Amino acid sequence: MEDITQQIAAYKTEIAAFRPSGEAALEAFRVRFLGSKGILKELFAGMKTVAPEQRKDFGLVLNELKQLAEEQYHNGREQLQDRPGESGGREADHTLPAEPQRLGARHPISLVRSRIISIFEKIGFSIAEGPEIEDDWHNFSALNMPENHPARDMQDTFYVAKAPDWVLRTHTSSVQVRVMEQGKLPIRIICPGRVFRNETISARAHCFFHQVEGLYIDENVSFADLKQTLYYFVQEMFGEESRVRFRPSYFPFTEPSAEMDISCLICGGKGCSVCKQTGWVEILGCGMVHPRLLENCGIDSRRYTGFAFGMGIERITMLKYQIRDLRLFSENDVRFLKQFEGAV
Ligand code: 2NL
Question: Which of 173, 178, 180, 194 is least surrounded by Cβ atoms within 10 Å, i.e. has the fewest?
Fold first, then answer.
């Protein structure tokens, strides 16, 4: 009797100290103490060998032990279920495939900007960047747009109230002015970036958008170079079937100036609602850099000539992916953004 009492005390210590290391350990505990061939079954079976006057007390001790074992088993189960990283309390199965990582999609403006950059990089253009808050000189005056020039009214501008000489840049031409002023020639750059205009927000206009401007200045740069460069860009961007046409236009910073159209991507030139039945859609403005601009930036306009162009990334993106409302680009609606997963 002494032996069995000692043995029960040892079991009690073991049970009280039990903390499962995992699902397998918990199951082993259950089998050892509570299983159909377990220790408690065996102890209860031994009741009949106990002297009748001691049987009641012995029964009480065994019941206490059984209760403790059941409690510890229950606690152990809860402990495993709470443990992070082991779903449902089961031990982690490291052979299962990993939970898929939900990757975001690149924003369509980023996709198209990268595409434009890599197309021009292939023919030797490098990237230049500059400030979004500009002074009057770099945004307007150097570009042949003096105070009271009607072109300043054309692009209604955000002025900084406390410093009226500062504006949110209305184009990235200001970056090109900064590069020209550095005086290292030849220049062959593109300037991607965000620009700001005080427009009423609609499906076709916003108070900020993204632009890529380009500038090439060297000796003997001609309008033929301009046409060939932009034709190459269109072929790469919109495919070999695309055709281009140039229409005369006006910008204060170029002379002569032109707007470039491409054959409509939707109808291939037959006429549809996107091209308003003309077969053509406008994609950018361009021209030969006005000699006065070169002089403004300290470049000898008798020796050097150049061409420049500017396009809105939103416009190119809308044409490429058939997006009809410009506001979608800045609303961050995931139903819109998700559509560009895997887009190139
Ligand atoms: C448009 C038209 C244009 C330029 C931008 C430029 C810049 C310098 C010198 C000369 Cl530094 N020109 N830029 C030239 C023609 C057109 O943009 O509609 N952009 C969205």
Answer: 194
